[in-house]
UniProtKB/TrEMBL annotation:
InterPro entries in UniProt: Amidase_dom (IPR023631), AS_sf (IPR036928)
Domain of life: Bacteria
Pfam families on file: Amidase
Stretches assigned to the Amidase domain: 72-505
A GO term for molecular function: ligase activity
Enzyme's top EC category: ligase
UniProt keywords, alphabetically: Ligase, Signal
Listed name of the protein: Glutamyl-tRNA(Gln) amidotransferase subunit A
Position of the signal peptide: 1-21
EC number: 6.3.5.-
Length: 533
């Protein structure tokens, strides 16, 4: 099973996600409307474009001795120092990062590398336990002591030779504290800003991971999702993000909301890097995972021929987003795909049931997690901590979700069990029946609206239904850049059947290549159009 899954994942690299040729040195340009870019620093000496280079290209350079992990890591650390003050996405860097990189360089010199991620810098969301680094979920309640053990997924990254570069900001408690949260804000880290337009929101809760990638502060990053928290930030920050099938990536050592829906997943600026990182996270990404050096242009162009894709438009996200979806459908059809319009069933009922179920599950799962850390020992203690620490209330004061979860029925309650059973059944049927009725390879929908203006008093404007079916079902979903509404990126969310992660990544690589929608952020202070959709 492992070998078959790895082979399928690597098939992604044959469908069109690699960039052939040697990247040329690119000077960082001035940013119209946003002031001069920070100095290029160590990145200028690498001979690669950090915005567009892929992991296989980096490994080719490290293999022939023209690049070291140490030089790459220094370049990213320099960018964090000079660029991140604009967006506030990285909470802390790992003081051992250069030591990790030097160990990778030694392995490369010996010809004994651990796999495609060996020497590749990775940022990790701050709700993932990382040994020796504060891992806070954005809350001061966990800011006293770092965890003594890595989350399983961090262990997997270390086993694959990745360089743990640091920790990213997030929406505090993964946006499961207040009924009017502001995505990208935490008491520990403050507000993360969208690199495209700085007064716009990065979406949550993996806000820092996505914004850091958009700003090219790391090669890949780790996010987590319960419903939308990987894919929405990916879409809103113009990068790629995969919510894997439930269980593909271990949740051990990750601050929970619900074991029934939570999963960590890889985020990157291209689908190739997402696929290789998933292989490492799932335990398949060691030295046996190798990538071809390049792909034929004709093969890449033909990756969508004969594919059937269902387009779920979601016009409530606004005419600008709908226009992006129309252009997306036109490009996919031109590449040989068949695109049919669909509306997955049962969405109203899913919306009614999901939140009450999550309240019960959060109470159970956060109590179990807090018992492993220094600080509040349970949800009741966490509520009291938040109430008694004014710094926890500087953006928004509410903790209504905590309080509702404390009062929610236990997960042993028959009514809760019936609710979760119905959720699982209807969410899976909503996808399975849609795929079967139209003989689809995947369902495509807009990932996100244009980013709203960040406003602590108002909170988020984030009712985005496209992520819910896969999130509740535990099926995979993948966001890739689709276009923009003005300066603001919009992603297309691809959803497939249970444990079809490899096939979805393969399709996503072909879609990414055909749409060719990525563009570098300009760090604009603001744009016209207010804060809505």
């Amino acid at each position: 099973m492992v070998k078959r899954r790895m082979a399928a994942l690597l098939a992604v690299l044959v469908t069109g996600s690699l960039v052939t040729g040697t990247p040329e040195l690119r000077a960082e340009a001035a940013e119209p409307g946003g002031g001069a870019a920070p100095p290029a620093g160590p990145a200028a000496a690498l001979g690669v474009d950090l915005d567009t280079v892929t992991i296989p290209e980096l490994q080719d350079r490290m293999a022939d001795g023209s690049l070291t992990s140490s030089a790459l890591t220094r370049a990213y650390l320099h960018r964090i120092k000079t660029v991140d003050p604009k967006i506030n996405s990285v909470l802390r860097t790992d003081p051992t990062a250069l030591r990790q990189a030097a160990a990778s360089d030694a392995r490369h010199r010996r010809g004994d590398t651990l796999g495609p991620l060996d020497g590749i810098p990775v940022l990790v969301k701050d709700n993932v336990n990382t040994r020796g680094l504060l891992s806070t979920a954005g809350s001061l309640a966990l800011a006293g002591n770092p965890p003594t053990e890595d989350a399983t997924l961090v262990t997997r990254l270390r086993e694959a030779g990745a360089v743990i570069l640091g920790k990213t900001n997030l929406s505090e408690w993964a946006n499961f504290r207040s009924t009017k949260p502001t995505s990208g804000w935490s008491a520990v880290g403050g507000q993360t800003r969208n690199p495209y337009v700085l007064d716009r929101n990065p979406c949550g809760s993996s806000s820092g991971s996505a914004a850091a990638l958009a700003a090219s502060l790391s090669q890949v990053a780790i996010g987590t999702e319960t419903d939308g928290s990987i894919v929405c930030p990916a879409g809103m920050n113009g990068v790629a993000g995969l919510k894997p099938s439930l269980g593909v990536v271990s949740g051990n050592g990750v601050v929970p909301i619900s074991a029934e829906q939570d999963t960590a997943g890889p985020m990157a600026r291209n689908v190739t890097d997402v696929a290789l990182t998933l292989a490492a996270l799932s335990g398949d990404g060691t030295r046996h995972a190798t990538a071809p050096a390049g792909v034929d242009e004709a093969a890449r162009a033909g990756g969508l021929r004969g594919k059937r894709i269902g387009l779920w438009r979601l016009p409530e996200l606004g005419p600008g987003v709908d226009a992006v979806m129309t252009r997306t459908a036109t490009k996919l059809r031109a590449a040989g795909a068949q695109v049919v319009e669909v509306t997955p069933p049962y969405q109203k009922r899913l919306a009614e049931l999901e939140f009450p179920a999550l309240l019960s599950e959060f109470h159970r799962d956060i109590d179990a997690y807090l018992a492993t850390r220094k600080g509040p020992r349970d949800l009741a203690g966490l509520i009291e901590f938040t109430r008694s620490h004014p710094a926890e209330q500087t953006c928004f004061p509410g903790q209504e979700l905590f309080e509702q979860a404390l009062a929610a029925p236990p997960t042993t309650d028959p009514k809760y069990r019936a609710m979760r059973a119905e959720l699982k059944d209807l969410s899976r049927r909503s996808i399975d029946e849609t795929l079967a009725a139209h003989r689809l390879d995947a369902i495509a929908a807009p990932t996100n609206p244009p980013a709203w203006t960040t406003d602590c008093a108002r909170g988020d404007n984030d009712v985005i239904p496209s992520s819910t079916p896969a999130a509740v079902a535990g099926y995979p979903s993948l966001s890739v850049p689709a276009g923009s509404v003005g300066e603001l990126p919009v992603g297309v969310l691809l959803t497939a059947g249970n444990h079809q992660d490899a096939a979805l990544l393969s399709l996503g690589a072909a879609v990414e290549h055909r749409l060719d929608a990525w563009k570098a952020p300009r760090y604009l202070p603001t744009v016209g159009g207010g804060g809505g959709r």
